[in-house]
Amino acid sequence: MSVIQGVAEWLPISSSGHLALMHNFFGFQSLSFDVFLHFASILAVLFIFRKDIIQLLNLRKKENLNYIFFILLGIIPAGLVGVLFKDQIESFFSSLFYLGIFFIVSGILIYSTKFAQVKSKKIGLFDSLFIGVFQAVAILPGISRSGATISGGIFRGIKKEEAVKFSFFMAIPIVLGAAVIELKDLVATNLDYSLLIVSFIITFLVSLFTIKLLLKIIKTDKFYLFGVYNFVLGILVVIWSLK
Questions:
Q1: For site-directed labelling of 19, which of 27, 100, 203, 216 has its Cα 20 to 30 A away?
Q2: Which among 174, 142, 205, 183 is positioned nearest to 16, based on CA atoms?
Q3: pTM of the model as a whole
């Protein structure tokens, strides 16, 4: 699960969807443990983009204040959906059929970026809200958060490298907030601390590798091919669910 989280959180193939598949096949399910793994992934982002983050924290620059505002604005849709529809969303995690459908939706969305025109524009107010709506949709298991938000940025004509960075930065407050909320539930699971430590380290290291890999892939204009993977996986999961 740690390896899957480290790979699938940053590659546009849905970590929540792959973890849900693991839960269905192996019977272990713990939302708080999943959030714990997400927290390890976020630390990898903080490490890789540490220079950008330090520069961004220079609040004397108006452009930095605007960028932080756009990040916070972009997470509002996901926050509202997560709070208002928490129970309904969690119910989808146990359904292989819906999981497969959402993988298919994610695949179509990501593949369609092949036809988008990049204008290398800077992120603006409407762009952040547009990307934020995509992030809200990606709360559903099987729809990749990174895939949806990067796709949203590409659809808005934002340079792919910038869309990736903005997508990753948007994940930071969302995951940190979820980690704080789920902390008490994680303690209540009574999981062995050595297991948590090993899982954390593995997720962090795999995330480092995966983020660097995605940054290389995004420069080759092959991002849309992840849509094929999601689509095929979705078909297979739907077929499996109907057996």
A1: 216
A2: 142
A3: 0.88
